[in-house]
Design goal:
heterodimer, A: 443 residues, alpha/beta, 8-stranded mixed sheet, 11 helices, B: two-stranded antiparallel sheet
């Protein structure tokens, strides 16, 4: 960690009046004149997002009827029809248990996002953290997490077995965090580094300087946990570094409107209203290069969504509501599925409304939208609804319906990693291990 | 799956234990020898953090911001803290909180009382004054004196910042903020040393002992007295340790420690995200939820600490406390307009003990209706330390539904369907009868005698013991042999930050006997644990292989229990 010591000295020098940019990590985010690419000629950075919801969709009502290109959305995914050429629908993926017990509403999300079926607590980092380590290391926030039903612990993003990234539950709080007093508008003309920030940055280096000594004092498992703490310190240092530099202008960057939260809870109209606010803030945060990775949890996996004044929740409906003999599905449970898909479409629409040169924010993003179960009534771990939206800046082909035949869900995660440049040739544990990305989608 | 104690063994033990004289203060620890556990690295919980700030800087300092959520492991957040770390998001929050606190410490309202000296010049650094302040404060925050290196770095940083910003206090402010985000503060890092009394074995060093002791008994950072005892080596002698334990158990602060333990054990952190449908339960809001938790904690500390009562009576006591707001839920007139007044449920009242209080029944319910299954699972896991298995995957719930007659009137009728299905029965037989005994209380804790116009029946049987109604049920739990066994195991696990190991089963059995012999007195139990060698013993390399976690009661024992 001699780097830290020297950076610390540099900062000390800085405080003494030396040039601001010397010795600090230089950000390659200076754009060309029309804002379509970096000044160096490289394209705008790729962004990754997840959108998770609990309790699946009805089998037979969400998968397109045809496979391959030129498909049409089925009944339950109609709100996504306008984006069908920019979405891949992936059906027929499965979770293998290898004799381990299934924990309803938990096993599926773990398999998809960590490539593993844990017996108790999660064992591995989640997909978004793996991706963030490749595409998100130079931004103010490594990733941003939100959830719609009020529990910060419902976040599925985790850096390791011991570190989860808790989710914001309030749009107003998220707004303050990203666009509040610490936000440096890249398009603002005047910039003056704050001496207090310089001092804080220097003091924080003092914490980092103790890393080696402290790591020596603890056993292997705790060493990893302490190291995770120091990783967090480095991220905080990086945030301060960014505040000390004049950011490069970004044509598409504007602050979103300051939001007023709808009631935070489980009532469906309020949940959707808060998601619409989250969608605006997250899209603007990516457009302003504050983060490259966003994670949205529509709500807790055992979906507590409800209509005002009723005792029944989405989750309870999926198990207890009888199948309507005429319709062939559970109408109350299906109502909530409709609201979820409609909200996913709103997120995509919001990203697509941010124009960047010839394309949109959606074009340079890759969004993995998925549930944790297929048919929730029976906690099915097969045919889990999965979607990949956006072209990842040309790194992935779109507009396909991939119909798998009971293949491991980890193929989707591997596809995401490889298309976004994570150097990995296989992913997942035991029967979930795969070295086969979805080749039809790879560019 | 080893079970700590079958009922027969506990009962057998009680007869034997009753003859043993109570070990008094300073008496030599005669409990079975254990191999100890690993040193731990525990992240401070939010309540611990808040308590430390109040103790070190005073209660007028506000702790702004929110905290990274704590994780529950093996039934306790205290155990979860041994696996948690800090994420980027979390550190961002800690940093905001630390800066908020530091700004208050040096503001005009506080600096005169909190900073023990005044600088020669306000506009520049003053290393002597800074050293005095940082050494004092750092000792309390790091739970040990700062090392020379640490102190020098802090003073130097404070000095440079003071010079740069032209203000002595701004320098100290940055120093306080830096200490509050440092790993030495955020993590309770234990250190072990060779045990000179037992060659080849290891024990916690004196400062680590002081921390374990202080967080266990008082839920906060060690006070000056305790740190002093650690510095002098007192905590390494039986007498010296016993003296400190005695001081702390006798202190009024023991009540904070007992409250903290039960807040963790009862899962009250769940209230932070608990919501009830306001149209169904218009009375239930965050004020009721707050009072409901306080009611239970008051009931517990009054019984267990103030009156040094029998732990098992928490299930049956008719004495509690109410506010006027709670009175409206309990349908009891409360004369005090603000604050608390004692209340005794009349003879024949369906409520008794903490299980029938609003806190337990409302926390373990759906937002819009009660849930006997969730309540039954909670009671088994929280008070009997039995793990109820998760439902299997790919279960067709259609089996339990009569689509021709979807409206079963009562929960008992609805759940009857589960009980009659072999795939579901195994687990639901464990949970449902327990929860159905509490069906007189709706999701918000209100009393009801019918559901959908059908009368609610609360009679039933658990683990071979029959009861006629909710109060009869509380008596059955009172006499359940697993209840004290569970408490001893869990409170030990709470103090050490890890599940007990198989190797410690004998020691725990011994403590259960002593607990019974003492008349199930919780302060005495805490004194015994805090004064024991086992509580501080650290496993040596090579013995870790034997540290397989002790399972209190796995699925096999439960299946036995429901036969």
């Amino acid at each position: 960690m001699t780097m830290n010591a020297s950076r610390r000295n540099v900062l000390r020098g800085m405080m003494g009046g030396a040039a601001v940019s010397v010795g600090l990590p230089f950000l390659d985010c200076f754009l060309n004149a029309n804002g379509t690419a970096l000044a160096s000629g490289a394209p705008l950075p790729v962004a990754f997002g997840t959108f998770f919801w609990g309790c699946g969709l009805n089998p037979g009502r969400w998968e397109p009827k045809t496979t391959g290109a030129h498909y049409d959305m089925n009944i339950e995914t109609q709100p996504l029809q306008p984006f069908k050429d920019r979405i891949n629908v992936i059906s027929g993926m499965k979770v293998f248990l290898d004799g381990k017990g299934a924990r309803p509403h938990f096993t599926g999300e773990m398999a998809i996002l960590t490539g593993d079926v844990p017996r108790e607590q999660p064992n591995y980092a989640s997909l978004d953290s793996i991706v963030a380590d490749t595409i998100g290391t130079r931004t103010r926030f490594r990733s941003l997490e939100v959830t719609g039903t009020g529990k910060p612990t419902d976040s599925l993003s985790r850096r390791s077995a011991s570190v989860s990234n808790p989710a914001e539950i309030s749009p107003a709080a998220l707004y303050t965090r990203v666009f509040g007093p610490d936000f440096r508008d890249p398009n603002s003309a005047d910039f003056k580094p704050d001496p207090r920030t310089m001092v804080r940055r220097s003091v924080l280096s003092g914490v980092t300087d103790q890393r080696e000594a402290l790591l020596k004092q603890v056993g292997a498992a705790d060493r990893q946990r302490l190291d995770e703490y120091f990783t967090a310190v480095r991220q905080l240092e990086q945030q301060l570094d960014l505040q000390l530099q004049k950011p490069a202008p970004l044509a598409a960057c504007t602050s979103p409107a300051q939001p007023t939260d709808a009631e935070i809870g489980t009532e469906i109209d309020s949940v959707v209203a808060n998601h619409k606010l989250f969608a605006q803030i997250l899209a603007h945060a990516v457009a302003c290069d504050q983060t490259h990775v966003t994670n949205v949890v529509f709500g807790e996996a055992t979906s507590p969504l409800r209509k005002a004044g009723t005792a029944m929740t989405h989750h309870i409906y999926t198990h207890e509501e009888p199948m309507d003999p005429q319709l062939g599905y559970q109408p109350h449970a299906t109502y909530f599925m409709g609201r979820i898909v409609e909200t996913l479409a709103f997120y995509l629409q919001t990203m697509d409304s941010i124009k960047e040169g010839d394309g949109t924010l959606l074009d340079r993003s890759l969004i993995l939208a998925h549930s944790e179960t297929g048919f929730a009534k029976i906690h099915a771990l097969e045919n889990i609804p999965m979607f990949l939206a956006g072209g990842a800046g040309g790194r992935i082909k779109t507009g396909m319906h991939i119909k798998a035949d009971g293949e491991p869900v980890t193929r989707v995660g591997l596809t995401v990693q490889q298309s976004l440049g994570v150097p990995v040739d296989s992913w997942g544990t035991m029967s979930l291990n795969t070295s086969k990305p979805i080749s039809e989608l790879m560019v | 799956m080893v079970m700590l104690n079958t009922p027969a063994r506990v009962f057998g033990a009680l007869g034997f234990a009753a003859a043993i004289a109570l070990a008094g203060c300073g008496q030599k620890d005669d409990s079975p020898v254990t191999k100890g556990g690993p040193v731990s690295l525990r992240r401070l919980t939010e309540p611990e953090y808040r308590q430390i700030i109040a103790d070190v800087f005073g209660t007028t300092i506000k702790v702004p911001g929110r905290f990274e959520p704590d994780v529950r492991d093996n039934g306790l957040i205290a155990v979860g803290t041994s696996r948690e770390s800090v994420a980027g998001t979390g550190l961002e929050q800690y940093d905001l909180t630390a800066r908020g606190i530091a700004a208050q410490v040096v503001d005009d309202a506080h600096k005169a009382t909190l900073i023990p000296c005044t600088p020669a010049k306000v506009t520049d650094k003053d290393d002597a004054c800074a050293t005095q302040f940082i050494a004092n404060t750092g000792r309390l925050l790091f739970r040990r004196p700062l090392t020379q290196d640490e102190l020098q770095t802090q003073v130097k940083d404070a000095g440079e910042s003071a010079t740069k910003l032209g203000n002595f206090y701004s320098g100290l402010e940055l120093s306080v903020a830096a200490m509050l985000v440092s790993p030495q503060f955020l993590f309770r890092q234990e250190v072990s040393e060779p045990d000179p009394d037992n060659k080849g074995e290891r024990r916690l060093d004196a400062y680590s002992k002081a921390s374990r002791l202080s967080f266990f008994l008082w839920d906060t950072t060690p006070d000056s007295d305790l740190l002093e005892a650690a510095a002098k080596g007192d905590l390494n002698s039986d007498d010296g340790l016993a003296k400190q334990v005695d001081r702390m158990v006798k202190s009024p602060r023991l009540a904070s420690g007992v409250r903290a333990y039960f807040t963790d054990m009862l899962g009250f952190d769940g209230f932070a995200s608990l919501a009830k449908d306001p149209q169904i339960y218009p009375k239930y809001g965050s004020a009721v939820a707050t009072d409901a938790q306080e009611q239970t904690l008051r009931t517990l500390t009054d019984l267990l600490v103030t009156n040094n009562g029998d732990y098992r009576d928490i299930f049956t006591t008719r004495k509690t406390y109410l506010t006027r707001l709670l009175g409206s839920v309990y349908n009891v007139p409360v004369t005090t307009s603000t604050g608390w007044e004692p209340h005794e449920y009349p003879e024949g009242d369906p409520r008794a003990g903490i299980l029938m209080e609003v806190s337990f029944v409302s926390l373990h319910s759906h937002p819009g209706r009660s849930s006997p299954t969730i309540r039954g699972k909670a009671l088994r896991e929280i008070f009997l330390c039995q793990k109820v298995p998760d439902p299997p995957g790919n279960v067709n719930f259609a089996l339990v539904q009569d689509t021709k007659n979807p409206a079963f009137h009562t929960a008992r009728a609805r759940l009857g369907a589960h009980i009659n299905q072999p795939t579901c029965a195994g687990c639901h037989k464990i949970m449902d009868p327990v929860g159905l005994a509490m069906e007189n209380f709706d999701s918000a804790g209100g009393f009801r005698s019918t559901e959908n116009d059908s009368p609610i029946v609360t009679a039933g049987e658990i683990d071979g013991m029959k009861f006629d109604d909710s109060v009869g049920f509380t008596k059955v739990i009172h006499d359940h042999p697993q209840a004290p066994v569970c408490l001893v195991n869990r409170i030990y696990s709470y103090g050490t930050g890890r599940p007990a190991t198989k190797d410690e089963a004998e020691w725990l059995n011994y403590q259960v006997k002593q607990f019974a012999a003492s008349g199930y007195k919780v302060p005495e139990l805490m004194r015994r644990i805090a004064g024991s060698k086992a509580f501080y013993r650290i496993s040596t390399p090579g013995t870790e292989a034997n540290n397989a976690t002790l399972s209190m009661a796995g699925t096999s024992s439960q299946t036995e229990a429901v036969k």
